[in-house]
Specification:
Distance between the termini: 51 Å
CATH architecture of the largest domain: 3-Layer(aba) Sandwich
Number of helices: 9
Shape: elongated
Low-confidence stretches: none
Strand content: 5-15%
CATH superfamily of the largest domain: Response regulator
Mean pLDDT: 84
CATH topology of the largest domain: Rossmann fold
Order of helices and strands: EHEEHEHEHHHHHH
CATH class of the largest domain: Alpha Beta
Helix content: 40-55%
Oligomer: single chain
Length: 200
């Protein structure tokens, strides 16, 4: 098995040497940024959009950020440009860094603080889903209403009357929800909606 190609980007040469030393592992090969690495480790005291944009230009490269200065407002832009993990400098160890790098490459590990996860979810909800009439768990407002009425024991004809649409529309709406979310029945859809906090 070939080692994973990893580039280290750090303006400070001491920091760069430290990161390279931490990545001393048979599964990792340090390469230059021009070599088209699979993963880039970006180690800076504060990471800005300029840093992330530079990584984003390395098409296909995943990025592990090591920093104590990362603005939560930049998380969606960062993720869109290949950032998979953001590790606080003080918490980095060789084992944790190698694990994050290998996990970034195969998609098995993503490390974001609770603050960054919350910021990402808020941004997704506000900028992406709500603009399409969707909720974070993947149901639109009318679909939630239909599932809520199913939970309350309404028959298809009664749901159609409540939502001022045809029975065929109600059936299509419920079928679309189940297909999109991988649910097997209306009961399963109701259980999903309860767990997601969409109905109570």
């Amino acid at each position: 098995m070939h080692p994973l190609s990893v580039a280290v980007h750090a303006a400070d040469p001491v920091t760069r040497r430290g990161v390279v030393a931490m990545l001393a592992d048979d599964r990792v090969e340090i390469v230059g940024e021009a070599a088209g690495p699979a993963v880039v480790v970006l180690a800076e005291p504060a990471v800005t959009g300029r840093h992330v944009d530079a990584v984003g230009r390395m098409r296909g490269a995943k990025c592990v950020v090591v920093t104590d200065g990362f603005a939560a407002a930049d998380i969606l832009f960062a993720v869109q440009n290949g950032v998979v993990s953001v590790l606080p400098t003080a918490e980095v160890s060789p084992r944790r860094l190698v694990s994050a790098v290998l996990g970034a490459a195969d998609g098995s590990v993503a490390v974001l603080s609770c603050e960054l996860q919350s910021a990402l979810l808020r941004t997704l909800r506000g900028q992406v889903l709500e603009s399409c009439g969707m909720t974070l768990p993947g149901m639109g407002a009318r679909e939630i209403d239909a599932v809520r009425l199913v939970a309350e024991g309404f028959r298809t004809s009664e749901i159609a009357a409540e939502l001022a649409c045809s029975e065929a529309t109600v059936k299509a709406m419920l079928r679309a929800v189940m297909t999109r979310l991988g649910l097997t029945s209306k009961t399963h859809a109701v259980a999903y909606a309860f767990r997601a906090g969409l109905i109570s």
